[in-house]
Amino acid sequence: MPIAVKDFSWDQNDKMVYLTVPLKGVKTNKVDIFSSEEYLKVSYPPYIFECLLSHPVDDEGSSAQLGNGAVIFKLKKTESIEWSQLQSPDSVNKEIMKQKREEAIEKVHKRAQEKEKGKSEVKRNNEKFSINQMMEIEESDRQRIADLKQSERNKATDDLERWKDEQIKIAEQERLLKEKLQEEKINNKIKKEKLKAAEKENAEKKENVFDSGVRQTGHITIKHTPRVFPTPVRESTTPLEDEWLKKQAESRRVVELEDKDLSEEEKNPLWLRDKGNSFFASGDYQSAISVYSHAIRLNPNIPGLYSNRAACHLKIRNFFKAVEDSSKALELLTPAVPQNAASRVKAHIRRGTSFCELEMYVEGLMDYEAALKIDKNNDQLLQDADRIRNIIQTSSDYS
């Protein structure tokens, strides 16, 4: 699936526009460049750069140069005016973009045909049939490849937008939780102050009646309500904790598989999780993935299975799968309570690392910062986040 290049840079003067597209370590012999008066494309798998220019240029007077890890376009303006932006606003319109791409290809072919007119009439007539056939085949192949690439780009864009929406929802849930905790803290403080005032008032009343008689002794029976979580009721987030306990209970329900070849242990997701952990510890990541996947089929509501499988995908450099499993683990690790904080930190780190390996450093930094909000005193997390910020800053300075 091609990755769209966004970190290009450009400059201009009265006559020329200079555009630099980084090759990201790809060898120059694997770079495919296409340009016309309005449309530019640089393809160097797995990356691709497309640009619909805001103004037409003189294609004959323009050039593209490969070297020093980048493609440098020198585009000659048709009019001596200052461009307010490089890309046309129509770039976001897929239909117009497709039309401009086809028009550019057609213009290039027409220009090639016009150059061929200078050759002898006899040779042109003899080769006319074969040339037309080849052009039809090439056009069909180009269109097929363009459609395939567009489909992959659309899928990648939809997946990224869906993931961003999920992150917005998670952030909103965390914000509401913080506001609720703050409100409960303030209410508890008010209750404590009222309690102190009442105790003080009762003490003063008792002092006033002390001389009227001898106090009678007595005893008070105190009963404590049993709680699953160790925090007191007045300091806890009871609704969220109850919701987490309900989800934990549901996650222990196992789907019954009618398979006589499976032993009782092989039908237990927790036993399978431990088995996968032992494979992971021995470095057999593919076997660990198979075991975790079987456990997920038995019970798809245990977040640790997805998080552990994401760690395996990260080891074998299957970064897109690692992002997908980490996101699923975070989805199951809700609501956010202290009891699942450590698991949320691991899932954020694994997804953030996967994004960084895919050179999506901004998204990776968001996950590391989310982990730091949970584990504020983790020195290693602080160092990793600073290193990612430096990479982002360095890339911005280069652009």
Write the layout of secondary structure elements.
Elements: E1 3-4, E2 9-12, E3 16-22, E4 32-35, E5 39-44, E6 47-52, E7 57-67, E8 70-77, H1 94-116, H2 121-208, H3 238-251, H4 269-281, H5 285-298, H6 303-315, H7 319-332, H8 341-357, H9 361-374, H10 379-398
Parallel strand pairs: 1-6
Antiparallel strand pairs: 2-3, 3-8, 4-5, 5-6, 7-8
Helix pairs in contact: 4-5, 4-6, 5-6, 6-7, 6-8, 7-8, 8-9, 9-10
Protein name: Dynein axonemal assembly factor 4
Domain CS: 3-87
Keywords: Cell projection, Coiled coil, Cytoplasm, Neurogenesis, Nucleus, Repeat, TPR repeat
> Quick one: overall form?
elongated
What value does the average pLDDT take? 83
Per DSSP E runs of 2 or more residues, the count of β-strands stands at 8
Which architecture of the largest domain would the CATH scheme give at its second level?
A: Alpha Horseshoe
CATH superfamily of the largest domain: Tetratricopeptide repeat domain
Strand order of the largest sheet: 1-6-5-4
Domain CS: 3-87
Pfam family, one: CS
Organism: Lottia gigantea
TPR repeats: 269-302
In words, what does this structure look like?
The chain is α+β, with helices and mostly antiparallel strands. It has three domains: 3-91, Immunoglobulin-like, CATH 2.60.40.790; 169-204; 237-255 and 262-398, Tetratricopeptide repeat domain (Serine Threonine Protein Phosphatase 5, Tetratricopeptide repeat), CATH 1.25.40. The chain is 58% helix and 12% strand. It has ten helices and eight strands. The chain has a four-stranded mixed beta sheet, with helices on one face. A hairpin with a 2-residue loop joins strand 7 and strand 8 (70-77). Helix 6 (303-315) packs antiparallel against helix 7, helix 6 (303-315) runs parallel beside helix 8 (341-357) and helix 9 runs antiparallel to helix 10 (379-398). The longest helix has 88 residues, at 121-208. It is elongated and about 115 Å long. Residues 209-216 and 254-258 have low confidence and may be disordered. This is Dynein axonemal assembly factor 4. Residues 3-87 form the CS domain. Keywords: Cell projection, Coiled coil, Cytoplasm, Neurogenesis, Nucleus, Repeat, TPR repeat. One of its GO terms (cellular component) is nucleus. Its main location: other.
